[in-house]
Amino acid sequence: MKSEAARVTISDVARAAGTGKTSVSRYLNGELNALSAGLQQRIADAITRLNYQPNQMARGLKRGRTRLIGLIIADITNPYSVNVLSGIEAACRASGFTLLMCNTNNEVDLERNYLSLLRSYQVEGIVVHAVGMREEALNQLQQSQLPMVLIDRTIAGFTCDMVGLDNPAATRLATDHLLQRDYRALLFISEPAGTVNTRTERLQAFRTQMAQHPDRVAEQLEIAPDNPAALEQAISEFYQRHRHLRCALLAGNGTVTLQVARALRRLNLVWGEQLGLLGFDELPWAELAGSGITTLQQPTWQIGYAALEQVLRRIDDATLPVSEQHFSAELIVRGSTWKLPGS
Amino acid sequence: MKSEAARVTISDVARAAGTGKTSVSRYLNGELNALSAGLQQRIADAITRLNYQPNQMARGLKRGRTRLIGLIIADITNPYSVNVLSGIEAACRASGFTLLMCNTNNEVDLERNYLSLLRSYQVEGIVVHAVGMREEALNQLQQSQLPMVLIDRTIAGFTCDMVGLDNPAATRLATDHLLQRDYRALLFISEPAGTVNTRTERLQAFRTQMAQHPDRVAEQLEIAPDNPAALEQAISEFYQRHRHLRCALLAGNGTVTLQVARALRRLNLVWGEQLGLLGFDELPWAELAGSGITTLQQPTWQIGYAALEQVLRRIDDATLPVSEQHFSAELIVRGSTWKLPGS
DNA sequence: TTGTAAGCGTTATCAA
DNA sequence: TTGATAACGCTTACAA
Is A2 within 7 A of strand C by CB distance? Predict the structure, then answer.
């Protein structure tokens, strides 16, 4: 048996109130100046008695505005995403929009599918934490004129509103901190850059910064998320190679920090003693891991909130100039980047 | 200027293909046996040329099925929720549904609002991580006949499909482990029980279990999430009171575990040395915190997946008997519940 | 094999 | 102040 929810429609209300649909519609849309007090009362009564809920689908169809915002998120299990989501969600609540959320699991195909899915649900705008889009998907987007804001990452060859981190500045902040604390050999560890500009930007900034300190060693490492053994080995080798120097690791995001911490654990290398460690993205457990892990905190919630605000502005006015908002990171110093006694 | 997405409709496609809407609709719905090869081709061409996307709103309005599932989640920043969400999301993907996600921030009012919001978007079913509902909200739900599945928690006085943890068994597993490891004074710490049955169930099971061991000390503590100072003090007092015994703390969920770990840090009490610690919910950093924290891992992803499957079953057949699925927790032993050398 | 027309639950236009 | 009535974009009898 199919469940048949007893749908009560505007016509039912109109009949129960002894009036026409138009008046009920007016009542619903707050055009009370066109309704006598008595009629208002009858309509109000009928609505509560029948427990009536206007059908947003029908409304959306008619008015062409669904009050729906699409969200495409690359990986919902990433703490970064969760906090951003929380900010977006709050902004939606404040503006009366509802989120249609899709998780692409870092897969490009899913991203494309979800994009058209959201479009088919007539979302009024979308916020995208991009994995990487192919030409065709981009062209479709261009055509569809759908208001869109990217968070955290841009898409090559696609100009679009975007809200994210000032990666060069953040990277400088992190690198300078390590240099100041007298680390002599730095290893920048990130996930495979692939199509994700954020990763290359941070790496690039790291190299630029290190180029000014030719006396220091700067190395880099790209590591697949599902290969802990390789990570262990690479770190171990780096450490062996430079054990006569003060070494530090710079993790390119929160996921990497977690993996690096695990690897160090297994290698019996103690951050804050044998090795410095600094990670992009603040983590709730950063102070609990060993002597604490120094992190670069992003204002994730604000980024999410700002992203949604930007989508709303764009929905309101498609002719606005393209906007890029870059937030600043904050360094939270903990035991993993300990000071040399002398310095 | 309002952005006016160049909406292309089924009529446009029909015109471009030199046919009627019906044939296009048939094509879209895979009724190809009723279409000549030539017409199929023309329609296919027109669709790609115009970059046409069927309007799901209109479809939903007409057919009465939106392929939309509502999700009400109590707190999206809780790792438990995130993993469950991930499972739900995967199940949606597998079944062709899309998620409308709402975060109630643990606020009862938001819960009620979102409930009717989801209804208004004609979702075909909902999955709810409940905060606590009042009479009126429940009555509305009963009336609306909306297929619904609760996760993790039940709602008092409301029979409904539910997927969650076997809390008594899980609690026994945890308690027995602590007893076996010779902890003599146990403190069960949870958030204020309020309307959340899960919390009381776990506490109840704890007390039942401890009642069988009158030689051991069993205490309990309810702590507001935003009051770290109080938590510190309570733990400190407990420890002072029983410092002649082997003490252990049992954290009622992942959020509490985090807070407890922080409090212990500030108190300079080391889990795995001065104090045992065991937490409900596995945490990605559990192995990294000090000597590691012993946890009770829930199959969160599976819980989410199963919840969505149950909603789908219920959508299909409203007359199914009410189902309660209880999953088992798994104990992951780490350094925080260390063995006594002798035993 | 194809197309016409009615209707899903709203809102907007127009007339009363 | 009110209320028919025609859309919105789609599916589905029913005709042809």
Answer: no
Burial of A274 by CB count in 10 Å (0-12 exposed, 13-18 middle, 19+ buried)?
Answer: middle
Asked if residues A98 and A122 have their Cβ atoms less than 8 Å apart, the reply is no
Contact across the interface for A314 and B3, Cβ inside 8 Å:
yes
Evaluate whether B270 touches B254 at the Cβ level (below 8 Å). Answer: no
pLDDT number for residue B343: 60
Residue B38, CB, strand C, below 7 Å: yes
| Structure-block tokens of residue A109 | 């195909």
Rounded Cα–Cα distance for residues B46 and B10 (Å): 10
pLDDT in tens, A99-132: 988 888 888 888 888 888 899 999 999 999 988 7
Q: What DSSP assignment string belongs to A126-184? A: EEE------HHHHHHHHHHT--EEEES--BTTB--EEEEE-HHHHHHHHHHHHHHTT--
A311 neighbors A149 (Cβ within 8 angstroms): yes
Beta bridge partners of A251: A189, A279
Question: Which of these, A248, A199, A262, A245, lies nearest to A219 by C-alpha position?
Answer: A248
Eight-state DSSP code of residue A232: H
Q: A134 or B53, which is more confident?
A: B53
Closest nucleotide to A7's CA, by C1' atom? C9
Query: Which ranges of chain A would DSSP assign to H, the alpha helix?
Result: 10-17, 21-28, 37-50, 56-63, 79-95, 108-120, 135-144, 167-180, 197-211, 228-241, 254-267, 300-316
The 3 state secondary structure assigned to A77-111 is: CCHHHHHHHHHHHHHHHHHCCEEEEEECCCCHHHH
Instruction: For residue B4, name the pLDDT band (cuts at 50, 70, 90).
Output: very low
Q: What is the distance between the alpha carbons of residues B129 and B25, in angstroms, rounded to a whole number?
A: 38
Cα of A209 to nearest chain B Cα, Å: 31
Q: Is the CB of A320 within 7 Å of strand C?
A: no
pTM score of the predicted model:
0.91
Residue A328 has a pLDDT of: 98
Judged by C1' against the alpha carbon of B42, the nearest nucleotide is C2
pLDDT digits (tens, 9 = 90+) for A204-226: 999 999 999 999 999 999 999 88
- Which residue in A10, A53, A320 has the most chain B C-beta atoms within 10 A of its own C-beta, making it the best mutation to test that interface? A53
Q: H/E element holding A186? A: strand A185-190
Report d(CA B180, CA B174) in Å as an integer.
Answer: 10
Structure tokens given for B45: 């061409």
What are phi and psi for residue A139, nearest 5 degrees? -60, -45
Determine phi and psi for A163, rounding to 5 degrees: -130, 125
User: How many C-beta neighbours within 10 Å does residue A213 have?
Assistant: 14
CA atoms within 13 A on the CB side of A338: 15
- Nearest CA-CA partner of A115 in A80, A78, A160, A62: A160
Give the H/E segment covering residue A188: strand A185-190
